[in-house]
């Protein structure tokens, strides 16, 4: 990891271990590309800064690869093109919900359209 000295894996903290393993997995995926990848809550042990770092890697890697990601982390969801969720209806049935994020403007685009004065009013 950048800025860290070399040490055995068992001396790393939980989030550091997870990020090291994720870097290794992404390196393997880049070296031996597959048709799609399924990642199930691999970002769970990461702190917020490393989730954002991982989400950036995921975004860049996902431009050329199809990735299915199971997660509860907002930062990871924000880099997705499409979200799927399952909810329970009042009648007790499961219902699949889909949200196509490519059709929604990103936060930066919203603030750009509103102008910087609106951003200051909204934050203060």
Output the keywords.
single chain; 124 residues; alpha+beta; Rossmann fold; 2 domains; two-stranded parallel ribbon; two-stranded antiparallel sheet; 5 helices
How would you sum up this structure, described in words?
The chain is of the alpha+beta class and 124 residues long. It has two domains: 1-73, P-loop containing nucleotide triphosphate hydrolases (Rossmann fold, 3-Layer(aba) Sandwich), CATH 3.40.50.300; 81-124, no CATH class. It has five helices and four strands, in the order H-E-H-E-H-E-E-H-H. It has a two-stranded parallel ribbon. The chain has a two-stranded antiparallel sheet with strand order 3-4. Helix 2 (48-62) links the parallel strand 1 and strand 2.
